[in-house]
Amino acid sequence: MAGSDTLTALDCHDIRFPTSDRLDGSDAMNPDPDYSAAYVVLRTTGGPQGHGLCFTIGRGNEVMAAAIRSLAPHLTGRPAPATAADLAALHHDLTHDSQLRWLGPEKGVMQMAAGAVVNAAWDLAARRAGLPVWQFLATLTPEELVSLVDFRYLSDALTPGEALALLRAAEPGRAERTARLKAEGYPAYTTSPGWLGYDDRTLVRLAREAVAAGFGQIKLKVGANLDDDRRRLRLARDAVGPGVRIAVDANQRWDVAESVRWMTALAPYAPYWIEEPTSPDDVLGHAAVRSGQPVKVATGEHIANRVVFKQLLQAGAVDFVQIDAARVAGVNENLAILLLAAKYGVPVCPHAGGVGLCELVQHLAMFDYVAVSGTREDRVIEYVDHLHDHFSDPVVIERGRYRAPAAPGFSARMKPASLTAYRFPDGPVWRARRTQPDRPDAQEVTA
Amino acid sequence: MAGSDTLTALDCHDIRFPTSDRLDGSDAMNPDPDYSAAYVVLRTTGGPQGHGLCFTIGRGNEVMAAAIRSLAPHLTGRPAPATAADLAALHHDLTHDSQLRWLGPEKGVMQMAAGAVVNAAWDLAARRAGLPVWQFLATLTPEELVSLVDFRYLSDALTPGEALALLRAAEPGRAERTARLKAEGYPAYTTSPGWLGYDDRTLVRLAREAVAAGFGQIKLKVGANLDDDRRRLRLARDAVGPGVRIAVDANQRWDVAESVRWMTALAPYAPYWIEEPTSPDDVLGHAAVRSGQPVKVATGEHIANRVVFKQLLQAGAVDFVQIDAARVAGVNENLAILLLAAKYGVPVCPHAGGVGLCELVQHLAMFDYVAVSGTREDRVIEYVDHLHDHFSDPVVIERGRYRAPAAPGFSARMKPASLTAYRFPDGPVWRARRTQPDRPDAQEVTA
């Protein structure tokens, strides 16, 4: 009875991991994150469910959950086959609800909520098609792909006709690139050595391990103290040798002049890019940073929507576009961003890490290779090696590359046991922590 | 025992008015708003409470309430006198919570939530001082005012030293301008005639009434249909005569090229400004619209933070800066924006209307006149004439001007009876509507 399959409910779970215990994920702006997910399940009467998530770093995950639940009236009662067949309609309904739009528009909590739900619907649609999302996308015609994009506010930079031409130009090589991707995977880089809370010994050990594991690029967090950054960069360079790229990431710590000064000082250590030097809203600021010092500029994980990415490209403000699977309004908006980047010839190097972000974003980078940009040149997907064990179809990294997912869907389904154990505030992990007040962060995380 | 006065709780009320019944507030992007407020009360053990609010247009008001409640741990237990004496510290704690910041950063739901709480704290502080907020601000020294501003990401456009110089230059005239403000009020314009859902007869009648009431400027909503816009502009011009300014407002309806085309077509009717021609995130787009057609450009009610305002000014993208009291992170962030506008010599014409926005923003414009820009030239505060009766100290408009508030606080305290009656979803007004399913919007508003 697939024809009568209907979306009956949108469930949202507040899932948090106590990662601040070990300073995993620590950087200049985020000293003690508890990696979390507002986790969405689109329940159906018959066919596959859709799962998605939005990543947060702890407090406020309940706000994301409220935002996701506010979208439920757009989902419940919707026929699953028609929803899967017209994901542009769902994306439009979620991002253009005239009352909810006031809370953005198209940014922050509501945009991330729309993204989690849109991605859950893509998971559902890909499972109905029996394909992983990257491959499901790559089966769509250029016309179908263009119809998925909301071109509102983009036409001064990219028209539907230009997008169609880009996609058609990439069409002939799809089959060959799909085969290469399955055989070779997609290049990754790793941030695991570089968290700001790690001591020098840990940094050096993890940097060596990264090279031994086959990574051609690592990333260090910077921005708290210039002398520390110099020392850590030197240690990392000594550990990895001259042939491995070392990117650095300031997590929005600086103003424009400070970015220029700091990166001029770090330039002798040959950092590959400086990521998030300043506010993600500051298009003109990024342009000034890019022209003011010699290191390439990357940003994107906190860029709110396609309109800001458009301007970063128009202004020549970035050397790398770092899409995030769960920050903008899902696959549809990321498709717009991939097309914008292709139009401007800027490589896309996705942000990942967190909870489930590697699992999700690998699909977008692989689709980009097969059907949009047509190349992996100068492109790498971020990789961080924690929390993958909570997913039933986790990413697989081999010799510094992501293996192309083969299972149907979006790879971001959490194991039922993890959903139970880490439920906040009443799952067993959090209940146990409240009874151990001597743990250093027990007060913090239960506040 | 004022010395022991402590903040004991942050209450948040979900208040909604069924304004969609009459198409009050209707425009090209918001066809049927139900004007709403996530209303904050900072409760104390002894001294005055602090009240604040965030305006929404209906659905999603519960998400705002969740966001406001997520800030409660920063408030409860805080000494009221110390909080009132260091509002920069509170503003910083709310906008730089390292985990909550991920949900923005500094934009959308979380930024509006911070704004509601910050403004409630300003209400509390001004009441402790026995002054209306505008006058309380105008008693602060230039050094104290500069210390209230978060200059992060601003230094390429405005340094603390430049801000101090601006404020010192305006200091000598404060007493004289305060006296003039009390005697003369502050110029207003009215949007009441121009909602898109009103028929021509209503438009003409209300336009004539506005002129008769002393307004020197009105505003019409545009952007749904060019022929309609032409006809409505002509009717309005005939009704008000050549000496009254008619601004138009597209509420983000257009892309860049469409903005230019549409406003070129409307230019013969001499609109005073075009407001929100396109996405509020599109700095470069606004610059292109401003240079591409002859009508002056205004925006701001949906600008997420000081960083985007900074760029609009750096890029020469706007002729008028339209601050909103409840969109950014409260008085502190609006103080940054007023200083930026003063530095660039761009007039501030605040957005208002909604629920309580007139009550709040009048204080900021009046403070700007007394202590920042020092002028009312080319400046007007928006005025819309509904929902004021729910406030205990509502705005007073006389001969097209806002009268300077005299009562202590921020003027945005709702009457207890209104808080009870319009509570969503369980207040008597909403309960009654659910039992009258033949009302056209009953389904909609209870969805």
From TrEMBL, chains A, B:
It comes from the Bacteria. It catalyses: L-fuconate = 2-dehydro-3-deoxy-L-fuconate + H2O. Gene3D superfamilies: Enolase-like C-terminal domain, Enolase-like, N-terminal domain. The keyword Electron transport does not apply. It holds the Pfam family MR_MLE_C. Its EC number is 4.2.1.68. One of its GO terms (biological process) is carbohydrate catabolic process. Keywords: Lyase, Magnesium, Metal-binding. Its cofactor is Mg(2+). One of its GO terms (molecular function) is L-fuconate dehydratase activity. InterPro entries: Enolase-like_C_sf, Enolase-like_N, Enolase_C-like, L-fuconate_dehydratase, Mandelate_racemase_C, Mandelate_racemase_N_dom, RHMD-like. Residues 200-296 form the Mandelate racemase/muconate lactonizing enzyme C-terminal domain. PANTHER family: ENOLASE SUPERFAMILY, MANDELATE RACEMASE (PTHR13794), MITOCHONDRIAL ENOLASE SUPERFAMILY MEMBER 1 (PTHR13794:SF58). This is L-fuconate dehydratase. It comes from Streptomyces sioyaensis.
